[in-house]
Design goal:
single chain; 61 residues; mainly alpha; 69% helix; flat; DUF5359; YpfB family protein
């Protein structure tokens, strides 16, 4: 095998492993008992806020 074919094969294997790990992570995030441990990180990052702030008007009409 040439080096390019080996590299292509390695990249395909890494993509498959990455996809499998992504699926496993998504399954874990759907489990309610596991969500309890990950919710705090969402609040720390500011993704979910308790109150909604009003949108700013940029053009007065």
């Amino acid at each position: 095998m040439t080096k390019i074919k080996r590299l292509d094969r390695l990249l395909i294997q890494l993509a498959i492993v990455h996809f499998i790990l992504l699926l496993i992570a998504q399954v874990f995030l759907e489990i309610p008992s596991f969500k309890m441990y990950t919710n705090k990180s969402i609040y720390y990052e500011g993704v979910i806020k308790g109150e909604r702030e009003p949108a700013l008007e940029t053009i007065d009409r």
